[in-house]
Amino acid sequence: MHRPSSMTEQQRQQIYSFIYSKIRIKFQEFLSRWDVTHDFIADLYHCDVTTVRSWINKNFGDSASQRSHQFKLFIADLILSDFEGLPDNLKILFCPDWNR
User: Fold this and answer.
1) Cβ neighbours for 92, distance < 8 A, ≥ 6 positions apart
2) How far is it, in rounded angstroms, from Cα 99 to Cα 67?
3) Which of 16, 43, 64, 99 is the one with CA 20 to 30 A from 6?
4) Pick from 57, 32, 30, 25: which is nearest to 41 by CA?
5) At what angle do helices 67-82 and 38-45 cross, to 10 degrees?
6) In the chain, which ranges are continuous DSSP H helix?
7) pLDDT in tens, 67-84
8) pLDDT in tens, 29-48
């Protein structure tokens, strides 16, 4: 049986740096950059359109529970704005069906 690898202190610090990074985009900022439908946002978040409309009407905030959503928006924004500039390994990671 394979034994899991242990993390070095440097790797642990890198992971924590990632966890607490500001790599995210706010909902309203994303909507101001991209002309997307509520259905698109619902697909991105794996929720229903009613939930998205509720967020829009309530000014989707910056609570800790929303950070994972903001991270997804950041990735979507990165893919939309500079997909060709990404290294191939990230293209494959973000878009597994991408063909070179």
Assistant:
1) 98
2) 30
3) 64
4) 30
5) 120
6) 9-19, 27-33, 38-45, 49-57, 67-82, 88-94
7) 788 888 899 999 999 999
8) 888 999 999 899 899 988 89
